[in-house]
Amino acid sequence: MRMNTADQPIVIRDSLRIGAVARQLGISASLLRAWEKLGLARPVRTAGNYRTYTNEDLRILRRAVYFRRMRGLNAPAILDRLREEGMLNHKKGQAVPETPSIGPQLRKLRLKRGEPLATVAKAVNVSVGFLSNLERSQNAASVGIMRRLAQYYGLNILDFFANGSATGPLIRPQERSILQGGPGVQMELLASGKITMEPHLFRVAPGAGSGECYSHEGEEFLFVTGGQLAIFLENEEYRLRAGDSFYFDSKTPHRWHNPGKKEATILWINTPPTF
Q1: Is the whole model's pTM more than 0.70, yes or no?
Q2: End-to-end Cα distance, the chain
Q3: Which of 47, 115, 171, 185 is in the most buried spot, having the most CB atoms within 10 Å?
Q4: How far apart are CA 263 and CA 275, in angstroms?
């Protein structure tokens, strides 16, 4: 179903490839690729190097189509408007790093153990179909599900990050390792090597979040640099705004989401690296 007006949502069940997205939005695939080069879109690349788009991607692209058709804006002007609305936070003309999928790693880990999909799916409380799609890079796992998978395989979420190009104490923005934590959640690793603190920059789209509760060893510190974040420690909710900081024991079951209308950015530090 195609929706082209500004107030009609596009709803999808799974990630879509570029051709399906182009048809839903009523634009060409070549225009989508051009917008990607400008930093307007952030599709995830599968193991087969196919672009996949989430609901959050479509929300942003739908707004871009509105500005193009109804307001007659060109691509640079669209970027400016989306940044003003808090839907994009990267700089004009800056290339957006590709976000690798964890699917191939999960499949490799499972096959190394010689376990069927059903065994792992039951252990981490997801469906066999979901896990199969995740391993084939057709689904994105929430932070909560990623945490359960990491625990099952005796790893930390940190181990799912692709190796970045930085090797010393200084990491420039373009050198950061990036991991997708489900639709609308992006985690950028701010340090590498043998570290005792695990610092991330979280980017959380409106309405996106961790999914279900999770817990692990260690302690956590958050500093909200932009937007809002609602975080639950067991059944108690805390609302954080830009400038707020937050500290808690990671053993406490916790979950979080962005309740605002703009992207939230959070400096998030775990110690030791047990996340």
Answers
A1: no
A2: 39
A3: 185
A4: 22
